[in-house]
Amino acid sequence: MKKTSTRLADGRELIYYDSRDDTVRDAVDRRPLDPTVTTSEIRRDPLLGDSVAIASHRQGRTYHPPADECPLCPSQGERLSEIPDSSYDVVVFENRFPSLAGDSGRCEVVCFTSDHDAAFADLTEDQAGLVLDAWTDRTAELSHLPSVEQVFCFENRGAEIGVTLGHPHGQIYAYPFTTPRTALMLRSLATHKEATGGENLFDEVVARELADGSRLVLTSEHWVAFVPYAAHWPYEVHLYPRRRVPDLLGLDEGARTEFPQVYLELLRRFDRIFGEGEPATPYIAAWHQAPFGALEEFDGISRDDFALHLELFTIRRTSGKLKFLAGSESGMSVFINDVPPETAAQRLREVASS
Q: pLDDT, tens digit, for every residue of 314-352?
């Protein structure tokens, strides 16, 4: 992998990740952009104890542009985009309309391919491996920023999810705090460790799914994918490396080499869940990594107790119908799942690639 860092016309950082070491990236951003101005603010809810990002400048962000005006496609002639070069493998840049910025963290866009009409599932294994390299590199770099405590790599796919740009891309949020979902995991981890005399809850969850087998989706030498026992979403898969590591940086060469094959197979199965002729399945793919900040509030827990894993889920519950977060889910955070996890796992096994 070759990494080339440059600056856009308004001062934002842009990084090319190339599979060839001899690739030259010297294109200049020719757009007449003013310096980026953001108004992000983090406010803490005193009752719930969580944090909310207030980012009013995002109201003006690009919204469903036509394909020939896509800001994530490479620049061509006088059609200038966020990517100055006329081609790219994988590229990462600071979001022009970030939810988090400055002392409040950082937001980046990850473009998986220059092909506007592709999806992550269409990538080759080499291309998917390069995306994994980019995620890992950005996790390492962002973890050193003084304002960053947790790094979250994710992809939103599909208009139903709320995606406003059709080009295949994901994002990275670098939070200045430990996110509420991760804090809940850490508390459960700490409670279980104390109650069992040192046992790791993540290890037990994976071992239970392997022993039960009814919710397994696929297994390989280095990875395990299953529908969780208490799945929140109609079709939800958790992907764990067999060797517990706290973050993407901890993956060994075997897991890194095998990941593209496993992950691409999962994504392709997701697109086959609802049968032939159905539109592409909307999904969220979310990497859960250990925070880089101090963990004193979680008694007896270190970063090495956390287990890196990816959660992949769709809001579509059946053909033509979405799972909306209504009163119980939105008002009380109590999910109601219409699809039994065992049924979801069986379906995801049925649509395996031949």
A: 999 999 999 999 999 999 999 999 999 999 999 999 999
Structure tokens at 8: 């856009």
Assigned token pair, 62: 């690009």
Residue type at position 164? T
| Whole-model pTM over 0.90 | yes
Instruction: Give the gyration radius of the chain's Cα atoms.
Output: 20
Q: 3-class DSSP state for residue 347?
A: helix
SS3 247: coil
Going through 252-294 in order, the beta strands assigned E by DSSP cover 283-288
* Catalytic choice (116, 144, 167, 169): 169
282 vs 233: CA distance, rounded Å: 12
Q: Which residues pair with 76 in a beta bridge?
A: 79
Residue 313: count of CB within 10 angstroms of its CB:
23
The Cα–Cα gap between 115 and 122 comes to 10
pLDDT of residue 68: 84
Alpha-carbon torsion (326, 327, 328, 332), positive or negative: positive
List % helix, strand, coil for the chain (3-state, nearest 5).
Answer: 30, 25, 45
Is 169 one of the annotated active-site residues of the chain?
A: yes
pLDDT score of 318: 94
Pairing relation of β-strands 235-241 and 106-111? Answer: unpaired
Collapsed DSSP state (helix, strand, coil) of residue 233: coil
- Read off the pLDDT of residues 202-240 as tens digits, 9 standing for 90 and up: 999 999 999 999 999 999 999 999 999 999 999 999 999
- Cβ burial, residue 57 (10 Å; 0-12/13-18/19+): middle
